[in-house]
Amino acid sequence: MRTTQLPRREPQASPAPKRPPVPDATFAKPNAWGAPGEPAADMGTLADRIRRLMNFQRGEGLVLPLGGHLFDIVITASGPEAYGVVAMLDEIQQTEQTDSPDACGPVIEDPERGWLIWLVPPGTSTRWNPHRYGACLGRPHQLALPPSVQTEPPGVFWRRCIRGDRLVPAMPLRDLLDRFRPGPIPHETLLASVLSTIA
Question: What SS3 state is found at 187?
Answer without folding.
Answer: coil
